[in-house]
Amino acid sequence: MTEQPKNNRISSGIAATITTAAVAVAGVVGYFTINNPSDTSNPNPPIVTQQPTNPVETPKATNEKTATVYWIQESQDGNNFELVPQSIQVQADVNNPSEFLEASFQRLLAGPTEGSGSSTIPEGTKLLDIKAQGDEVRVNLSSDFQFGGGSASMIGRVGQVVYTATALNPNAKVYLELDGEQIEVLGGEGLDLQQPLTRDNYQKNFEL
């Protein structure tokens, strides 16, 4: 009878130890559960990609188009001269005919290539501006355009300008300016120009 209380004390101590250990294990498990959450219901979380801060610009609409420049060439009968076209390819805004004509005139003022004819436009003439709007084309050249050559040369260079400027629209009206001023008389020979110039009045008023 004297040993029973001792066994009870031992059993009570073991139970207390087990309870304390269980509480400690539960605390450790709870700590790791809080600090390392795991959602087994969605094993593949969505990937978030950062959107670019600078949107990509849409490239400007361009189109390769055939433009035309005009040179002077001796006629087949050898009695006079005539205007002859040369096709060139240019890249420009499809909605901006001024860009096509600018490219044409830059090529015209650079001079003819081998076998394409000749030019009566004085070397050094520069294109200052060109605008095509509706059925009108305004061509602004440097004053070099009016120097050198006789009346035949003057007629030839006017024809080159008129026909090149109206290559996109043969019925267009051309206004010729030198250094920003519209002219009525060209050069020392005094070639009268009836502005606006057209292919029709050029053929009526001038002969190469």
Automatic annotation (TrEMBL):
Domain of life: Bacteria
UniProt key word Membrane: yes
Record-linked Pfam families: Germane
Coiled-coil features, chain-numbered ranges: none
Domain called GerMN: residue spans: 101-187
InterPro entries: GerMN
Composition bias type Polar residues, residue spans: 48-60
The keyword Transmembrane helix belongs to this UniProt entry's keyword annotation: yes
Keywords, comma-separated and alphabetical: Membrane, Transmembrane, Transmembrane helix
Region (Disordered): 36-60
TM ranges: 12-34
Protein name per UniProt: GerMN domain-containing protein
Organism: Plectonema cf. radiosum LEGE 06105
Top-level taxonomy: Bacteria, Bacillati, Cyanobacteriota, Cyanophyceae, Oscillatoriophycideae
